[in-house]
Amino acid sequence: MIEWLLDSDPALRWQVERDLLDEPEEVWHATRARTATEGFGAALLARQDPDGQWAGGALFPADFDIDGPEAAPGAGQPWTATTWSLNSLRDWGVDAAVLRRRRTVELLAENSRWEYEDLPYWSGEIDCCINAWTLANGAWLGADIAHLVDWFIDHQMADGGWNCAWVNGSTRSSFHSTLNSLKGLLAFEIATGGTDEARAARWRGQEYLLQRSLFRRLTTGDPVGPWIGRLAYPFRWSYNVLNAADYFRQASSVDEAPPDPRMDEAIELIRAAQQFDGRWLQGDGHPGRVWFDVDASAGEPSKWLTLIGTRVLSWWDSGACGRR
Q: Any idea what the Cα angle at residue 228 is, between residues 307 and 58, rounded to 5°?
């Protein structure tokens, strides 16, 4: 299985070398450096517009018609615009210096506006998930996003989580919104060292998920939805137990803390999805326009899910702090 994983794009291979093989830093650093000049990373960088954006828009392409067939129920949405492209480049390990040399932060400040009320790109907007991605990408690229940390502290709900529907009056947190918010805060902390207030908010948000075993309702103990076990890469905005467990693996390294036993049931769901040969199969992904495919078709063995699942189980079974 390891040879199968190593026979892959540099964006995936360097993580196999680091997280599964424990190769010396010089080995996986050399592979990681190739992400900007080969494979997925290079292909996505080549699609950046002269104005710093991708597909001419912040969250949606410039040619996206909100009343057109792409916006119809079940049709999905385009995944080609700026925020989704930056998310991918960051997740794949592309060096931020490559984007800095292109003046990406400055160009987005000058040219990119959110579809919501035409707000400036690095200001964020009202959606927790969008602000979380902006926080993570801004921290990665060195943009001024300190105000977004305060936004998350101010918008944390009484139960400890977050919900993008707060603007519509919701007072209960969402699993999806909470996980994305936690990822943003953790990325900020890794990039900058964080603040005591942001760290406290992150720990409260983690408790929201841990109290619910990562997938159960607090009131009844029932699973919150069928999507908890729908594993498909890229994860995009959606919650599932593998996505959540990989977050906690990263957080354990930052916090120098062992795995929390309240994750036990979620880990067993992940383990149950593993095939006899050690791989995980790609699930039904999010429909919508993409620049290019980065993983297997539904029902086929997924290298990305196998990488993530294997490192999560390795972390859990060792009972140790994870790798960032």
A: 75
Per-residue pLDDT, 168: 87
Q: Is 103 left (phi over 0), alpha (psi -120 to 50) or beta?
A: left
- CA 124 to CA 111: how far, in whole Å? 14
Condensed to tens digits (0 to 9), the pLDDT of residues 110-166 reads: 999 999 999 999 999 999 999 999 999 999 999 999 999 999 999 999 999 999 988
Contact indicator for 114, 167 with CB cutoff of 8 Å:
no
Is 174 within 8 Å of 120 (Cβ atoms)? no
3-state helix, strand, coil in the chain (%, to 5): 55, 5, 45
Whole-angstrom CA distances from 265 to 20, 150, 214, 253, 273 are 23, 33, 8, 21, 13
Looking at the DSSP assignment, which residues form a beta bridge with residue 48?
54
Strands (E), 67-122: none
Query: Which residue, chain included where needed, has tokens 């699942």?
Result: 309
Residues 239-251: tens digit of each pLDDT: 999 999 999 999 9
Cβ(273)–Cβ(309) under 8 Å? yes
* pLDDT higher than 90, residue 271: yes
Whether 311 and 249 have beta carbons less than 8 Å apart is answered as yes
Return d(Cα 121, Cα 23) in angstroms, integer.
38
14 beta partners: none
**Backbone dihedral region for residue 74 (phi beyond 0: left; psi -120 to 50: alpha; all else: beta):** left
Q: pLDDT tens digits, residue range 14-66? A: 999 999 999 999 999 999 999 999 999 999 999 999 999 999 999 999 999 88
3-state secondary structure of 18: helix
Q: How far apart are the C-alpha atoms of 254 and 324, rounded to whole Å?
A: 7
In the prediction, which pLDDT does 167 show?
86
